[in-house]
Each structure stands twice: as structure tokens, then as C-alpha cells.
Design goal:
- The protein has 247 residues and is of the alpha/beta class.
- It has two domains: 6-107 and 212-246, 3-Layer(aba) Sandwich (D-Maltodextrin-Binding Protein, domain 2); 110-204, Periplasmic binding protein-like II (D-Maltodextrin-Binding Protein, domain 2).
- The protein contains ten helices and eleven strands.
- It has helices at residues 6-9, 14-23, 50-61, 73-81, 139-142, 145-151, 163-170, 181-191, 219-235, 237-246; strands at residues 30-35, 66-71, 87-91, 100-101, 106-108, 110-115, 133-136, 156-159, 176-180, 201-204, 210-216.
- The relative contact order is 0.20.
């Protein structure tokens, strides 16, 4: 499969064009390690979702193609370390990875979610102590030092399947789900046929937005992605994708 589309390839900055020729970037598809299903950001079965389409569009804007391999976070990190991918997505500085980080390409809004009927009041991260919590994988690392301390002082677990957070909350097995807001709401739609998701929710915005980048093994591929990302922000494609998946 050809990665570089000639008309787009010739529009690249001269230095990037020369570097891509030197490494033979036109010879293979860029492989990206992706997390398992995380709607609306990652739709594994469809090989789509907001994150996937942003990355795909950014590479396409510079005449390149990306393929995605979906794994749990632990396997994602393991296989990146074994050099099975050219890049890995949804990473930030809290993960100790070697490589070349891209520009920020997406933000997540992580929140604490409780059933309104429980009347749980949360104004700061420290208020999460002494209540039972189910969070997403690596939340104790990604959400900062204060949340890490809380995770050690309360009934706390991390789940590799985000849908299980919804199930545990609605079934009364936990007090709070710490989840990305749009992921939780998307899971509600997916689970509506097997779970009563009609109960009112309180969404507590305790955390700042979390910025995510890709990590690449090759600085030249990273630079190409950054250039493509700049292009789709300028031409409106980025905003159109956000509107498509989050609204």
C-alpha cells in the first residue's frame, strides 16, 4: 500500500520532504498502537472514533496512511517497548516512554460521576476519600498526585473495560465512577438495552482537562504528523471531526 500521495508529498516543507525520502517513508504504512474500545474516541470494531479519525486525517493531509492495532493499555505499552508499532496514541508525560512526542492532538475531560439519588458532594479531589471508586486504567497515574494519594486511601479499583464502570455505578456496587465524560455517556447508550441508565447523574468536574499526544519511534514521522495536524486544524477538518463525534 502506498503511503505518500504524490500531490500531498510535494507540498511538504522541503526539509521534511527530504527527510521522508531518506527514511523511505513511502514504503510502508505507519502503524499506531491504540487502546481497546473507548467510544466515542476509539471504536475498535469500526476502526474509527474521534482519536482514530484525527490521526488518520493528519497523516492523510501530508499524503501518508496510518493503520491501527487495538490492545489493552498494558499490552499497548508492552508492544511499543518491543518495537511492534511506529507510534502509540493517547499518551502524556506521566507515562515513562522513550521516543518523540507529537504536539497535543486531543484533550479528555475526566470527571467523577455519581448517582444523584446518593447526594454525594464533591468539590475537590480530596473529597473522594472514604468512598468506593472505579476508575479507568492508569487513572491513578494520569490524574495527578492528589488523586494518586486518594487511590491509596479508599476502596479503589481500575478497570480495563470502561463499560464496567457504568454497570458498577448503576448497580450500586460503587459510589463514584472516575471516567472520561463522553466515554461514560457513550457507554450508557451502548448499554441501554441491558441496563437501566435512566437514573439521574451528578457529574463532578474535579479534574483539569488531560492533554494527550502520540509517541513515535522516529522524529521524522512525528514531524510529518505534526505538520498534518496543523493542516487539519487550519482547514476545518479537525473541528468537523469533533462536532461529528462529540455533539
Amino acid at each position: 500500500m502506498t503511503v505518500i500521495i504524490l500531490r500531498d508529498f510535494m507540498r511538504l516543507p522541503l526539509t521534511l520532504w527530504l527527510l521522508l525520502v531518506m527514511v523511505g517513508a513511502h514504503a510502508s504504512t505507519i502503524s499506531i498502537g491504540a487502546s481497546s474500545n473507548r467510544p466515542p474516541y476509539i471504536l475498535e470494531d469500526a476502526e474509527s472514533g474521534l482519536e482514530v479519525e484525527i490521526i488518520r486525517a493528519a497523516f492523510a493531509a501530508v499524503g501518508m496512511e496510518a493503520s491501527f492495532k487495538f490492545y489493552s493499555r498494558k499490552r499497548q505499552l508492552l508492544f511499543y517497548g518491543k518495537e511492534r508499532f511506529d507510534g502509540i496514541m493517547t499518551v502524556n508525560s506521566s507515562l515513562d516512554l522513550t521516543g518523540y512526542p507529537s504536539d497535543i492532538y486531543i484533550y479528555y475531560q475526566n470527571v467523577a460521576i455519581s448517582l444523584a439519588e446518593k447526594q454525594i458532594r464533591l468539590e475537590r479531589v480530596a473529597d473522594l476519600q472514604n468512598i468506593s471508586i472505579a476508575a479507568f486504567e492508569d487513572a491513578s497515574i494520569l490524574l495527578g498526585g492528589e488523586f494518586y494519594k486518594v487511590s491509596k486511601r479508599t476502596i479503589y479499583r481500575e478497570l480495563d473495560t470502561t463499560e464496567n464502570q457504568n454497570k458498577m455505578l448503576y448497580l450500586g456496587r460503587i459510589d463514584v465512577a472516575v471516567a472520561e465524560k463522553y466515554v461514560f455517556l457513550a457507554n450508557n447508550l451502548r448499554l441501554a438495552g441491558e441496563l437501566d441508565t435512566s437514573k439521574a447523574l451528578d457529574i463532578h468536574e474535579l479534574f483539569p482537562r488531560t492533554a494527550y499526544r502520540l509517541m513515535f519511534r522516529n522524529s521524522i514521522v512525528r514531524d510529518a504528523f505534526n505538520e498534518g495536524l496543523r493542516k487539519i486544524r487550519e482547514n476545518g477538518r479537525y473541528d468537523a471531526l469533533v462536532k461529528q463525534f462529540l455533539h
